[in-house]
Amino acid sequence: MAEAENVRARFPRRLGRYLRQSCARAPVRLTVFAVFATIVAWPLIETAPAMNTFRDAQYLRAYEDHAVRSVAEQGQFPLWDPYYCGGVYALGSPQSRYLAPTFVLSLGLGVARGAAVTVLVLLLMGMEGIYRYAREHGGSSLGAVAAAPVFAASGLFATAPMHGWIHFFGFELIPWALLGVCQVMRGKWRGALLAPAILAWMVGFGGTYAAPMAALLCGYEVVRALAGVRDRRRLARMGIGAGVIAWLALSLAAVRLWPIAETLGVAPRVVMGTEGYTLSHIGDALVGDLQLRRGEVLGPSGQFYVGAMALAVAIALAFRRAAIPWIVVALLAVWTATGNHYATSPYTWLRQIPVFEALRYPERYLIVVALVVPVLAAQGIRRLEARARRRAGWAVPLGVVLALLVANAVLQVAPHHAAADTRQLAPPPAAVDRPFAQARGNRWAAAYYAPMSRGSLSCFDDYPVPMSPVLRGDRAREEYLLTPSKGHVARNAWSPNRIALHAELDEPARVRINQNWHPGWDASVGEVVRDEGLLAVDVPAGTHEVVLRFAPQSAIGGAATTLVALGLLGWLGLAWWRGGDESVWHTLRRRGYVLALSVVPLMAVASLGSQPPWTPPSPHTPEGEDVFADAPPPEATPLNVALAHGLVLEAGHVRGEPFELGGTAMLELDWRQRHTRAPPGTQVFVHLQAPGGHVASADHRKLSSQIRLDQAPLGRTLRDVIEVPLPHRGRAGTWEVWAGLWIPGEHAHRLPVRDAGDAKVANHRIRVATFQVRSTGVSDAP
Amino acid sequence: MGFPLRRLGQVAAALTPFWIVVAVGVRAATVPAEDTPRAPEALRRRAYEFVVRAEPRHRRAAARKFPYDAWSQDDDFHNKELQRARFFARRRDISVAGVLQAIDEGLRGNWPPHLVEPRATVAPCRPRVRY
Question: Pairing relation of β-strands A761-762 and A765-774?
């Protein structure tokens, strides 16, 4: 009897030990994670070949599909993507995700099927990553396994596949990057191999949030580790470790960072994002139910779901001093997610930092809460386990906590399935094998075009894509002579990065290619030029085989830097393989200067300087003239009005007199940005005033309907030409045109006029011109 | 003799998570895709005519909705174009891909209706700040 009671009393301890040991064994743990990830991702797997027709899913799938075609069909590295926007620099598109190990899944299985398996693999990696990270910070193995789904299956990952945001699964890699940094800070130099590789993977996987956020959190890990360390030698080692990680990460990611920086330098991202969440919304986002309708998410509820039970467990187990830094991080993340809603937040400070100023959805910082909750839970569970080993009564709360976490994980499955089931799916388009040509296309259905050997000129991305305004979607030939009478040109071979032409010319002629120009294009014969934004070649007279190749400096230099960095990573990896962590440290201490080799290809390519600068093509006014000019047209009236932020209204005029009620007036305003661009959101206001008062407005965001002021280049005349419809009613006589700049929104205001120049100014409105309006349709023009 | 087998079993068991991922990958690779046969030319021509006939009206509406914003006008028009393509595809035995292909063929081949002049150019991508 006593023996039986003894066995019963020891059972919980034995069970606990068995579970802890099982969770600590990778095969068992990974099996559990793989089963859970399969359950979560099953709706995606079962619909793997179908195409998501959501607008973002279309163009993001298209990017990946075009990369697969380059490799699988043409045997080329995806440098240039001719299938979108008339041709874009694929390596420089921030949202393409093909430069990551998961690209082999797209190559092997196809884009759609590959995406489903990619989600599965990254869910698995997310759980294993947060497990290891929690363990590194003192969490129990059992607790870390139970809490892992809180991060890896949080709401962000439920909604991402629905939108086609597969690259958002790059967030699953954050715990691995942090783990690497943590390890280095603790003298485990294997982390110097892990963290850079993971950070480079995140950069290569696309998107603009995961990598910068990871870098920010890595910085926090370094600061946290350095704080409180007094030993100078140890501080030096930690500082060197942090530097090595940063250096290797940047070098490894150079093949993507350089092209992206080049692209965004020409065309900065413009989408404004959101104001952030209120505290109430944040609560809904973390514990509420996902609200879905026909492939769209309604409101913030559940979008960053971690679960009420998991949150309660984390809070209940956080009443200890060691939890304070984690609680602070979580609260900072919540505060940051409020964005601009309250007086201030870390989000407004982060926006001052380059790269972070482009991150415009502050609520996405809530992923940090999903990172903190499992760590707090695992740490707390370890303490409970220790108490349960001393006193059996503690096994009950331990069991309750574990049961809550498991129940939380079960509840996390439903949002994933609901989001997957609400997708608007369509059969994948059939392939049509024929010579490539540009189509007018449709950006809402961008993924339909490459399979039919067409490019979609109609396109969308978060930045103003440098596109020629004369691209056409109805050409019989994609490569043609500007002056057809000068000879004949025919396509010999076509591939994304290489176009071979046969030209027979009676005299020197310009060959146009129906794609965008980029400075990375070069020709074997003649000179590559930019012709109204189109790729073109000036070819001498005679018979020539002209081969155009795309090989931009940023791709060559970036790739060379990355290859060298891979070699350096291999060199450190070999040191670790031979002698462990200390061997890596000794290698760095003796020969750390070798790391500087990664900058050699970068400098070598940059010093070549043979590639022309990349500037966006000038958009056209409604009459087909360049918006960007050196000076206002001679017929414009000089105004020279200086406004705030270095903006100038150089000149203005109204064309096409005489005007009639019900007709139109052609108004031109010539702006200039001297030193800095206009504040984001700056718009132009135009007021028409008849003798009796204000009669009409023609406020607009884009100059000549083409480009926003804050996107336009500095130091050029920016011709803003618009057709202003005249109202049918009003008094004939002398009308006035008043204009200026303003910023709409909660604190809407006009940009102040600093110097009236040659114009009449009143209340920060500038009188641009006057014109005569007739009241009838009778014209006395010759 | 049993020892190598036991070891082999242990290794196989350790690779269980790998086998799970492979099995799921095989499932993803083998889920049958819905077939979309190519529609006959007569149906494609009707699709083109149906969609393009509405282009002038859709472009005028887009111009009113987004004055002085060429890309947004184009974008709004293309949204309506796709909705019209989907409407036709649902009613007839043709895929959305087939309708989009018909639009491309019709633009290139100057198919009727000749009273409508569909635009073959697009405004360069200039995304709005807010949607």
Answer: antiparallel
Q: What is the pLDDT of residues A149-180, one digit of tens each?
A: 999 999 999 999 999 999 999 999 999 999 99
Please tell me the distance from the alpha carbon of residue A265 to that of residue A463, in angstroms, as a whole number: 11
Q: Which two tokens stand for residue B71?
A: 């890309």
Quote the mean pLDDT of chain A: 92
Q: Where are the beta strands (DSSP E) in A26-107?
A: 51-52, 80-81, 88-89
CA distance A494 to A434: 11
Minimal C-alpha gap between B2 and chain A (Å): 22
pLDDT of residue A710: 86
Its ipTM equals 0.95
Distance, in Å, from the CA atom of A80 to the CA atom of A618, rounded to the nearest integer, reads 21
Return the number of other C-beta atoms located less than 10 Å from residue A64's C-beta.
Answer: 28
Tokens of A91: 């390596």
pLDDT value of position A707: 87
Please list the alpha-helical segments (H only) found in B15-119.
16-30, 41-53, 55-65, 70-91, 96-109
Q: How far is CA A771 from CA A623, A697, A698, A782, B38, in A?
A: 21, 16, 16, 19, 58
Report the C-alpha gap between A533 and A616 in whole angstroms: 8
| CA distance to A339, A406, A474, B108, per residue, from B115 (Å) | 52, 66, 17, 16
Which is nearest to A709 in space by CA: A358, A264, A270, A352? Answer: A270
Name the band, by pLDDT with cuts 50, 70 and 90, for residue A779.
very low
Helix axes A210-226, A232-252, angle to 10 degrees: 170
Q: Answer whether B13 sits within 8 Å of A706, measured CB to CB.
A: no
DSSP letter, residue A726: P
Q: Is B101 on the interface with A (CB under 8 A)?
A: yes
A673 three-state secondary structure: strand
Backbone angles phi, psi at A662, to 5 degrees: 90, -5
Nearest to A648 by CA among A681, A669, A671, A630: A671
Return the bridge partners of A755, or none. Answer: A642
Question: What is the rounded CA–CA span in Å between residue A377 and residue A534?
Answer: 58
Is B75 touching A (CB cutoff 8 A)?
Answer: yes
User: Is B54 near chain A, with CB under 8 Å?
Assistant: no
How far, CA to CA in Å, does B130 sit from each of A135, A500, A611? 42, 42, 35
Residues of A in contact with B38 (CB under 8 A): 430, 432
| Structure token pair of residue B99 | 């309708």
Q: How far apart are CA A431 and CA A412, in angstroms?
A: 38
The residue of chain A with its CA nearest to that of B68 is: A705
Q: What is the rounded distance in angstroms from the CA atom of residue A144 to the CA atom of residue A409? A: 12
Distance CA A146, CA A32 (A): 10
Do residues A455 and A83 lie in contact, with contact meaning Cβ atoms separated by under 8 Å?
A: yes
Confidence (pTM): 0.90
Per the CB < 8 Å rule, is B33 touching A473?
no
Alpha-carbon distance of A558 to A553, in angstroms, equals 8
Report the b/e string of A426-442 with b at 16+ CB within 10 A: bebbbeeeeebbbbbbb
Query: How many angstroms separate the CA atoms of A154 and A148, rounded?
Result: 10
Q: Are strands A765-774 and A683-690 parallel, antiparallel or unpaired?
A: unpaired
Residue type, A107: L
Q: A440, A457 in Cβ contact below 8 A?
A: yes
